[in-house]
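step: validate -> pass
step: tokenize input -> pass
step: predict -> running
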Amino acid sequence: MQRWLKLPDGRIIDANRVAYIGKVETFVRIDENGIDLGTGYAVYIGTDFPRETQISVTGGKDEVLAVLRALLGPAAAAAAPDKT
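step: predict -> pass
step: emit ->
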């Protein structure tokens, strides 16, 4: 059974096809005028092991964590409380 998951950039993937989830990394977000937009977050999600099947999910902390919680399910969200 397919379980569709919408990513912050609008793409949709089948959560059952996810083979691995990479480490969450942070980076400095700057717009085209050089204004600091704060910290950005990114995580690689792979639907298979070749590099061509990696999906980079980027966005704010809440967006990336929402995707990870949706992938890992409610049990993982309860086991790892949000440390803000």
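step: describe -> Strands lie at 4-6, 12-14, 20-21, 25-30, 36-46, 54-59.
step: cleanup -> pass
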